Request: fold
Amino acid sequence: MSRKCRDCGGSMASYIEDHQYVECGLSYVVLHAIKKFRCERCGSETLQIPQQAQLHRSIADAIVSSPSRLGGPEIKFLRSHLGWSNQQFARMMGVSEEAASRWASGTATMGGPSERLLKMLAAIGPIDQEFEDFEDQKSAHLGMLQHAITRVFAMLAADELDNLTTKSLHMKLNRDWAPQLAAA
Reply:
């Protein structure tokens, strides 16, 4: 069964190629040996990214484990990975929406404690939506902290904390994500 172009209905030819994954908002992420499709009629291209959620988890882990300060693109990626709007992000970080927006756009630098909090939350992963319903910020933070502690203990029990010590994005992607790509 051949793939059809969404734009013109033409046949799509497949090929394998490296792909600079700018769609995630980080210009330096390169995916190796990605299956792409090009329309033989109009030239439109699409790509197939298997296990995208696991890929984004690996990217988030690499950002969290990096000793570098977070820039706007990394902050925006982690915020998105956590599933938060700018308003939710500002609320969880205890800052105004304007400050959160300036961090994500790179026009303001995130302070050290805020950066450590964001990295910790990203290392734990997306937080259940139930915490959005808390009326006051203190209750939301306490709920998140309880959830985080539960997740860390579960990770310790499952011996998954090695994922948090990744030294580079390339190593992390090759170790955790690339084997699934080869099997796909």
The chain has two domains: 1-49, 53-175. The chain has a mean pLDDT of 79. The chain is about 50% helix and 10% strand. The helical segments are 52-65, 72-81, 86-93, 97-105, 112-124, 137-157, 169-183.
